[in-house]
Design brief:
Layout: E1 9-18, E2 32-42, E3 47-51, H1 58-65, E4 74-80, E5 83-84, H2 90-93, E6 101-104, H3 108-111, H4 118-130, H5 134-147, H6 152-156, H7 164-176, E7 182-186, H8 194-210, E8 214-218, H9 222-228, E9 231-236, E10 239-245, H10 246-251, H11 256-263, H12 302-306, E11 312-314, E12 317-319, E13 328-340, E14 353-365, E15 369-373, H13 380-388, E16 395-400, E17 403-404, H14 410-416, E18 420-423, H15 427-430, H16 437-448, H17 453-466, H18 473-476, H19 485-497, E19 503-507, H20 515-532, E20 535-540, H21 543-546, E21 552-557, E22 560-566, H22 567-572, H23 577-585, H24 594-601
Parallel strand pairs: 3-8, 3-9, 6-7, 7-8, 15-20, 15-21, 18-19, 19-20
Antiparallel strand pairs: 1-2, 1-4, 4-5, 9-10, 10-12, 11-12, 13-14, 13-16, 16-17, 21-22
Helix pairs in contact: 4-5, 4-7, 5-7, 16-17, 16-19, 17-19
């Protein structure tokens, strides 16, 4: 008798490792560790989403649950209603596949026999596993086809006569045919147009309401996972790195990898350019020591490189991270700054005072691009200068990498300057006209006494290359007045990059440039930020521009932060009247049709 508390499906310490013989010398190739110690439970009627990049091991898990891998390549425990499936002989799997666990594979095009019609193939599991007579199996196949959006002509067709999306629906009909206890769907929405995809998701919702079957949804379609599952597991290089309630994980990701996946996902509510996670998945035959994500992680520490993090509870979810998940790079609490009316930085009793920043609090996460927007005079630049220590605040504090900037000594503060860099709005005011390009870029290295002279010169050349500028002797000898505005702003950015900072605060870095140079420079900043894993605070009044690169947006008005949130959310659903006014006033092309313009002229 099965205990009522026993999960429908219980997976513990699942491994799937594959090796291959080297035909040339008889030796074995390195073992491919496709899945390494994965555990989860699935309740009857429950739904689990498994997400991750292509090659992370998602499909390998699905095939392992049906015993489809070579003998000896899979170990651990997979229990269906308490019955152990690992190690079953092939003949014992026959009554389990399709009838108890069914898989709708992603590559539906190769899953069908090309010499049989689609309807015949949908009917086959009904005959083989349920023992239905041919006529009844055919009728049931037609009903399944109709349910999944297929017409009779589709059932009469051969596989090569159907589109990829139609074959995907036929595969779903086959998976549903025997009313399995566990339904595994591998990328069911791939190849579907938007209307067909919406219909398919509605169908799967209906199936979930009508059936007690458990659902495992393997997908890179995060919107489908959000619509169909209650729990989600994030898989990276064969290991779960974050597991929790779907709504919570997708709304507030805590592992750096999960955060990267979500920020790479296309969203209809913003025009932000897509940016993949830097680096690439490790070779499963030679995964890195320690945390497998550490070569791509912006916040990795020495412990991450040598010690594998366990999957443990951090608050309401499981996270595999030595630091407990995504870290806050910089946090400002209730910052205040007041200037006297005569322009001095100190206020005198009786004088008019300007509250440039009032109780401003914000956070910048590891590797995040945050846009600080607002009209001229809203306090953006003052706040940016407070964050990097170029102005002393009248109250509040700034915490950078866990350190309160106000408590740092002179030597510690100088060291901190290497970690935070500021790019001013006007590069002509920010650099000395007496210095050559080589001296402008190299000056931070000279001040910090980093390396020998030759090393500093080489780092300066590398920084210039990073921003798309030449580093030949002729260019290095040029002075500020000999450069265009775009060139000088790139030099200023190279100067900020030369110390390999962790955070850059860029104050209106493209406001003085033409649209072409603006586009080039903003894309360059985003590219460098992504490659180096820096945080970036982009101060601007140009909403159309920052929405192309920002992960999150902060709106400032008269010294106060009035709204903040994901850039897509702020743009699509602004909550504050000031934000709505900024969006409505943002410049946009309004090109009338030629006929309408001619009619108006007449």
């Amino acid at each position: 008798m099965i205990d009522s508390n026993t999960p429908l499906l219980s997976v513990r310490d699942l491994h799937a490792h594959f090796g291959a013989d080297d035909a040339s010398n008889g030796s074995r190739a390195p073992m491919v560790r496709a899945v390494d110690s994965v555990s989860f439970d699935l309740e009857a009627g429950g739904a689990l989403g498994i997400v991750g990049e292509t090659g992370s091991g998602k499909t390998t898990i699905a095939r392992a649950l049906l015993g489809l891998h070579p003998p000896g390549s899979v170990w651990g425990s997979v229990r269906l209603k308490g019955r152990e499936l690992i190690g079953l002989p092939e003949d014992a799997w026959r009554p389990i596949r399709w009838r108890r666990i069914a898989l709708a594979v992603q590559s539906a095009g190769t899953a069908f026999d090309p010499v049989y019609r689609i309807g015949e193939q949908i009917a086959e599991p009904l005959r083989e596993h349920l023992g239905l007579p041919p006529d009844e199996a055919r009728q049931r196949a037609q009903a399944l086809g109709f349910r999944t959006g297929l017409e009779p002509r589709h059932l009469r067709a051969y596989p090569h006569q159907l589109s990829g999306g139609e074959k995907q629906r036929a595969m779903l009909a086959m998976a549903l045919s025997c009313d399995p206890d566990v339904l595994i769907l591998d990328e069911p929405t791939s190849g579907q147009d938007v209307l067909s995809r919406a219909h398919l998701i509605d169908l799967l919702r209906q199936i979930r309401r009508e059936s007690a079957a458990g659902l495992i949804l393997i997908s890179h379609d995060l919107a489908a996972v959000a619509a169909l599952t209650e729990q989600v597991a994030v898989l990276y290089a064969g290991k779960f790195v974050e597991v929790g309630a779907t709504a919570d994980v997708l709304a507030r990701p805590r592992h750096p990898y999960t955060w990267g996946l979500l920020n790479a996902y296309p969203n209809m509510t913003t025009a932000r350019d897509l940016q993949g996670i830097r680096g690439r998945l490790p070779d499963p035959a030679n995964p890195p020591a320690g945390c497998r994500f550490h070569p791509r992680c912006t916040q990795a520490v020495e412990r991450c490189r040598g010690e594998e993090p366990p999957l443990t509870y951090v608050g309401d979810r499981l996270i595999a991270c030595h630091l407990g998940g995504l870290q806050t790079l910089l946090r400002a609490d209730r910052l205040r700054k007041t200037f006297s009316g005569n322009g001095n930085g100190h206020s005198t009793p009786g004088e008019d005072q300007v509250e440039a920043v009032r109780e401003a609090s914000l956070e910048i996460l590891e590797g995040e691009v945050v846009a600080l927007v607002g009209e001229t005079g809203s306090g953006k630049t003052t706040l940016g200068r407070l964050l990097v220590g170029l102005l002393a605040s009248d109250g509040g504090r700034v915490i950078f990498e866990g350190q309160d900037l106000a408590t740092l000594s002179g030597r510690e503060e100088k060291k901190l300057r290497r970690r935070i860099q500021f790019v001013a709005q006007d590069p002509f005011d920010a650099v000395s006209p007496r210095l050559k390009v080589s001296e402008i870029v190299r000056e931070p290295l000279d001040v910090q006494k980093v390396g020998a002279s030759a090393e500093r010169e080489e780092k300066a050349r590398q920084a210039l290359h990073a921003v798309g500028l030449p580093a030949d002797p002729a260019f290095l000898e040029r002075r500020a007045h000999e450069l265009s505005g775009g060139q000088l702003q790139r030099v200023a950015i190279a100067r900020a990059l030369v110390l390999d900072p962790k955070l850059i605060v860029a104050d209106e870095p493209v406001s003085m440039l033409d649209p072409s140079e603006q586009a080039k420079l903003v894309n360059l900043l985003k590219k460098i930020q992504n490659e180096r894993g820096m945080g970036l605070l982009l101060i601007s009044h140009d909403l159309a521009l920052v929405r192309k690169v920002a992960d999150r947006m902060i709106v400032m008005r008269e010294g106060e932060i009035v709204e903040e949130g994901p850039a897509s959310q702020v743009i699509a659903h602004p909550q504050h009247a000031y934000t709505r006014a900024l969006l409505e006033a943002a410049p946009a092309f309004a090109i009338e049709p030629m006929n309408a313009a001619l009619t108006a002229d007449r």
